[in-house]
UniProtKB/TrEMBL annotation:
Disordered as annotated region, ranges: 60-107
GO molecular function: alpha-1,2-mannosyltransferase activity
Protein name (database record): Glycolipid 2-alpha-mannosyltransferase-domain-containing protein
Record-level GO BP terms: cell wall mannoprotein biosynthetic process; protein N-linked glycosylation
One annotated Gene Ontology cellular component of this protein: Golgi apparatus
Family, as annotated: Belongs to the glycosyltransferase 15 family.
Source taxon at top rank: Eukaryota
Keyword Hydrolase found: no
Record field: compositional bias (Basic and acidic residues): 86-101
Length: 459
């Protein structure tokens, strides 16, 4: 076949037009995508979506590309959720040395047909409580701590960004601190517990203490022979709220390494506490090992007589016949720090501490806190967080809230709420208005405002 010059020119024009347009289209597609990724880098999830729309439309105009939506959801030839990994460049600000987080929904994969659910509460809520997450932990518990923190951030704090206060009776290692900082964007403070908050007080006879510890240990009582456990319980009972790092806060959420959280929390529990005049809260209530608290009930009643207390919630924990062993499990607590800073609680703690029984008997902070709520609060000031799915040791509180729910309860692990040894039924059956039990310094105890019982042995 022979080609004339006009033939050759015509072929050249067709060739240039065809390959030129392919190159043009592919260049604009990828460059607008990386532009979007770049622009969206420091935006919140909510802003991401809006910014994405704006950037898309700006780019469309600039490049003059027709982005018709096809039936399969593709826009201008870009299919929804294509297999595109946005380019990863180091765009972190100089001061921020945290690794870049993987965006679960690459913005260049978004399209106008996507269903985008707006988060119910954005990260930058203006209204916040003066609150912190408080964690007493040892360096050796880093692994369990990281697992718990990952869950805690995912279920709650990623959205609310409350600060953390980590406390330890020994200095935190550099590795521990750096490892924790990888998991959160919230402010984190690491503090040392001062020695005077973690030592055997002068009035405790250490010989007797060791004898009693040996006795409990030989009976196989949990932590019976542990001195550090006793320090921990005493610190959590009477000192943590006085730690310098907590002075600026009104509320705290106590978290421990190894615990689990199962439900997304899309409201601020601190604000809930504040707005509803709640002072203390729990997720699990259960019975204590009796050998660890043989005299705490008697001492609590003595304290009530001495101070002429009028109580409304104490009968949740016992009556004339004694202590029913019920307590709120303090490994989870969201509470007001002012409850403990109150001079009435301080007097109660000092009274208990003077007996030396945090060391002799191994009193737990859960019992001290729970009986204090009984002495000083109404039922309305204590809250059961039914919607916080939680697990500590083998005890789970988690209510499956269905296919539209927010909980992912552990499979094959029963909810402890109504299990053997749970005190949730006691709580639920306790009347909202309370049951009066007044104590007088002369030994009178007045039940329901009229029935008087004399207890001269307690004054
Ligand atoms: N820094 C420090 N933390 C402790 C010590 N003993 C217990 N803890 C912490 O205190 C909390 C309760 O202790 P744990 O052993 O879980 O007691 P349990 O929940 O009663 O079985 C956890 O957060 C522990 O990490 C200790 O000796 N030093
Ligand atoms: Mg624990």
């Amino acid at each position: 076949m022979r080609f004339s010059i006009p033939h050759i020119l015509a072929l050249l024009v067709v060739f240039l037009f065809y390959f030129g347009s392919i190159r043009y289209v592919s260049r604009t597609s990828s460059s607008s995508c990386s532009q979007i990724v770049e622009n969206a880098q420091y935006l919140t999830a909510e802003e991401d979506v809006k910014a994405n729309e704006v950037v898309l439309s700006l780019d469309d105009e600039k490049e003059g590309i027709q982005r018709d939506t096809a039936e399969d959801g593709s826009i201008g030839g870009i299919k929804p959720f294509p297999d595109i990994t946005p380019p990863k460049e180091d765009r972190s600000p100089a001061t921020d040395n945290k690794p870049e987080q993987e965006d679960p929904f690459p913005v260049c994969a978004m399209n106008r047909n996507s269903t985008v659910l707006e988060p119910k509460q954005s990260r930058n809520k203006t209204e916040k409580a003066k609150a912190a997450i408080v964690i007493l932990v040892r360096n050796s518990e880093l692994g369990a701590m990281r697992r718990t923190l990952r869950e805690f951030e995912d279920r709650f704090n990623r959205r609310f960004n409350y600060p953390y206060v980590f406390l330890n009776d020994e200095p935190f290692t550099e590795v521990f601190q750096q490892s924790i900082l990888q998991l959160t964007e919230a402010k984190v403070e690491f503090g040392l517990v001062p020695e005077q908050m973690w030592s055997v007080p002068s009035w405790v006879n250490e010989t007797e203490m060791h004898e009693r510890m040996n006795q409990l240990q030989s009976k196989g009582i949990l932590y019976g022979g542990s001195l550090s456990y006793r320090h921990m319980c005493r610190f959590n009972s009477g000192f943590f709220y006085r730690h310098p790092l907590l002075q600026k806060y009104d509320y705290y959420w106590r978290v421990e390494p190894g615990v689990h959280f199962y439900c997304d929390l899309d409201y601020d529990p601190f604000l809930f506490m504040q707005k509803n005049n709640k002072m203390y809260s729990f997720t699990v209530a259960l019975q204590e090992i009796p050998e660890t608290i043989p005299t705490i009930w008697e001492h609590t009643l003595r304290f009530a007589h001495k101070n002429g207390l009028k109580t409304k919630l104490l009968r949740m924990f016992g009556d004339e016949s004694g202590y029913n062993l019920c307590h709120f499990w303090s490994n989870f607590e969201i509470a007001s720090l002012h409850l403990w800073r109150d001079k009435r609680y301080q007097a109660y703690f000092d009274y208990l501490d003077r007996t030396g029984n945090f060391f002799y008997e191994r009193w737990g902070d859960a019992i001290a806190h729970s009986l204090a709520t009984g002495l000083f609060l109404d039922k309305s000031q204590v809250h059961f967080f039914a919607d916080i799915g939680y697990k500590h040791d083998n005890f789970v509180h988690c209510v499956d809230d269905g296919i539209m729910g927010k909980c992912m309860c552990p499979q094959n692990e029963g909810n402890f709420d109504y299990g053997w040894g749970s005190c949730l039924p006691n709580w639920e059956q306790y009347p909202a208005e309370g049951r009066r039990w007044d104590f007088k310094p002369n030994g009178d105890q007045v039940f329901d405002g009229n029935r008087v019982v004399k207890r001269l042995d307690l004054v």
